[in-house]
Amino acid sequence: MSDSGVERIAAAFAAAGKRAALMPYLMGGFPDRDASVAIGEACIAAGADLLELGVPFSDPLADGPVIHAAATRALAAGTTVADVLQVAERLAGRVPVIVMAYTNTVLAAGVERFCERLAQSGAAGVIAPDLPYEEGGELAAAAERHGIALVPLIAPTTTAERLAAIAARASGFLYVVSVTGTTGERASDAAELAPLLARAKAATQLPVALGFGIATPAQAAAAAAAGADGVIIGSRLVRAAGEGGDAPVAVGRLVGEFAKALSASVP
Amino acid sequence: MALAHRYGPYGGQYVPETLMPALAELEAAWLEAWGDDGFRGQLAQLARDYVGRPSPLYEARALSARVGHPVHLKREDLNHTGSHKINNALGQALLAKRMGKPRVIAETGAGQHGVAAATAAALLDLECVVYMGEEDIRRQAPNVQRMELLGATVEPVTAGARTLKEAVSAAIRDWVENVATTHYIIGSAVGPAPYPAIVRELQRVIGDEARAQLLERAGRLPARVIACVGGGSNAIGTFAAFLDDAAVELIGVEAAGEGLETGRHGAPLSAGGRAGVLHGSLSAVLQDDDGQILEAHSVSAGLDYPGSGPEHAQLRDTGRVRYAAVTDAQALAAFRELTRLEGIIPALEPAHAIAWLLENGSGELDLVCLSGRGDKDLAEVLTLGEAR
């Protein structure tokens, strides 16, 4: 893994070819640390091109009930940031791992030290869902020094001026939040996604991935058809991971269905 | 012109991208409204005729005799709805109306802010949803009934310790979902910019009035100004008028809960340690080494919060304000003592300020912000009294 995280992310999107890249989200330490590694491996085996790995946080303002509850359980089980980085380390050799960490967990380690630890774990990128452009300069600079992509989010409410500024500093890919809301499964209207994706794609040369609210293979395929270069599946998979039974099998089966739908949607 | 976003290193806007345009819209709307004599006049008129401002400054003679020097109480407990919270809630509800937002949301701990927001919403015909932790719903039942009578929906919050921290988180998530139609009336001088600056501005009527009343009454400034600090809205509103009076000592009293040394408290400013991000701003917070926010503890639901307003963190660092903490037991004793001495039942929150005063005489004239009345706390205090 001599390539930087930024390069590995670019290669993963490129390797997905015409099919939109599939990026499952898993919560580190949920249902427990080893199970989250097994879930990540199952996602990769089922066709994941990249993985988003959540660091559980006590007060996750961007997350809806499913991911919030998973974080609460992971923390109650004693999951630490170090544990999650070990999960990253065990998965990062196979696909790029993007770590989603709330700002205070980054600040607790220190911005520089956090990026150093990410790089050591083999993570390719970082997403801080409560760190908007205005507050993100220090993390962007530190991430760049360590070859880590700081992936920014844009939302349906993001203005043209903000989009331009955010896109200019983006690294890895642009994460488009599909709904005005928190994470969670919901019905979405593909017709509303197309203009949002078009705005995002016009602002950057980077891949544009869509997340928040994508719960079914059909929604994923519709997002790809609407122009998304990648789709992120979160709450649906975290819900499956928490339903008991063989979590890696259950999540892997779902990821396989998403992968199939994305492949079928390639014209 | 813009509002303060940073207080030294503290403050900022640590929120999901979805909310950033709303914060900008709020700041622009606030600056435009606050610069408009019509808006200011409307708020001033309501403050006078509806809230009952100016609130009295009362020289508490029995309390003064007890501590051995004059003590004046700023009677925010006599405001309509029973606390200082109405000053902010009314201002923000008027702003929501002006911004064309038909719906307001609020968080509440003790219920005082929830009642104030529900009251302002009833007055201005706004839909109102109040998020409240289940534990606080239990210990502040009368305020829940009041909010519901006023037409608000009280949403129980079941996450975490089911208190104020989780109620704020739930309100922020609601705002993320409904930002187009909804204004979030945050209840304390916390949250992402521009909230701490707006709340401070709406609450500084407390300090401005008290300063003028004291100068007129006693012909002098106080030696000390004492106020309780949870998020810190009554304190910042009171202190704001005295920050430039270098001879006036300012004391913020936090909740030491079961004792600072037990870790079960609500005193992030007194406890010190690394600053952290909670609910959109960087300030003093209770957290572990990984940056996970810890649960606070206080007998007072309004001080049961692991964070603090960012300006307070700066005022601590510069030394302009001294922060101290008193325990649950001290606050409960002060609650009873003030009631017996003065016939004034204080809320458990300002009972902390009274408790500190009782143990720290100055020999000179002091001003204490009595931020709310204690009717809401009777059941809880009586239960705790029987339990010991």
What does this structure look like?
The complex is a heterodimer of chains A (267) and B (388). Chain A has 267 residues and is α/β, with parallel strands linked by helices. Chain A has twelve helices and nine strands. Chain A has helices at 5-15, 33-45, 65-76, 81-91, 103-109, 111-121, 137-145, 160-169, 190-203, 217-225, 235-241, 247-264; strands at residues 21-27, 51-54, 97-100, 125-127, 149-150, 153-154, 174-177, 208-211, 230-233. A nine-stranded parallel β-sheet of chain A has the order 5-4-3-2-1-9-8-7-6, sandwiched between helices. In chain A, helix 11 packs antiparallel against helix 12. The longest helix of chain A is centred in the C-terminal third of the chain and has 18 residues, at 247-264. The N and C termini of chain A lie far apart (33 Å). The mean pLDDT of chain A is 95. With 388 residues, chain B is α/β, with parallel strands linked by helices. Chain B has 15 helices and 14 strands. Chain B has helices at 20-34, 37-51, 61-67, 85-98, 112-124, 134-139, 141-149, 164-178, 195-218, 233-239, 268-271, 310-318, 328-342, 348-359, 378-387, and strands at 6-7, 10-11, 57-59, 71-75, 103-108, 127-133, 153-157, 182-184, 224-228, 249-257, 275-278, 281-284, 321-327, 366-370. Chain B has a six-stranded mixed β-sheet with strand order 3-4-14-9-10-13, with helices on both faces. A four-stranded parallel β-sheet of chain B has the order 7-6-5-8, with helices on both faces. The N and C termini of chain B lie far apart (55 Å). The mean pLDDT of chain B is 96.
